[in-house]
Amino acid sequence: MSVHFDERSGVVPCKTPWGSWYQTMEEVFIEVNVPKGTSAKEVRCQLGSRDIELKVGGQEIFKGKLFGTTVSDEATWTLEDKCLIQIILMKTNREAGNCWSSLLEGEYGANAWVQDQMQRKLTLERFQRENPGFDFSGAEISGNFQGGGPDFSSLQK
């Protein structure tokens, strides 16, 4: 479901010195630019439920404690066109209110505007899941969207 929503609505990337990261309700995507011609043998990527480490050619790109917990068995990394590493982490908490403000604790944080846009996007993604007959991909949202937006679960259907 989220893949189709992202294709229509785009992503909100958080730029970093090595590339960028972005998120959906379910996943965190990390894109790392590496020197052209990099081979998979040069990449050392350790993906844990709370920790991550990436080295390329023996040089550390990043290492630390993730902002949130992930399902380590479902984490993957790929080397694309020998110049881009894409890492996909599956969040354990897949609620719209679980918007990571940084990739690692205290590092690679989103500025206030990017954080606001990420939270808006996750809230719209939640609305899309709750209302599959509607298309929220081009919608704008204002008001109470922090923490995943308003809770309509107590309303009668």
From TrEMBL:
GO terms for biological process: cilium assembly; determination of left/right symmetry; protein folding. Its main location: nucleus. It is found in: Chromosome, Centromere, Kinetochore; Cytoplasm, Cytoskeleton, Microtubule organizing center, Centrosome; Cytoplasm, Cytoskeleton, Spindle pole. Keywords: Acetylation, Centromere, Chromosome, Cytoplasm, Cytoskeleton, Kinetochore, Phosphoprotein. The keyword Nucleus does not apply. One of its GO terms (cellular component) is cytoplasm. GO terms for molecular function: unfolded protein binding. Residues 14-104 form the CS domain. Signal peptide: none annotated. Pfam families: CS. The keyword Flavoprotein does not apply. PROSITE patterns: CS. Interacts with LIS1. May regulate the LIS1/dynein pathway by stabilizing LIS1 with Hsp90 chaperone. This is NudC domain-containing protein 2.
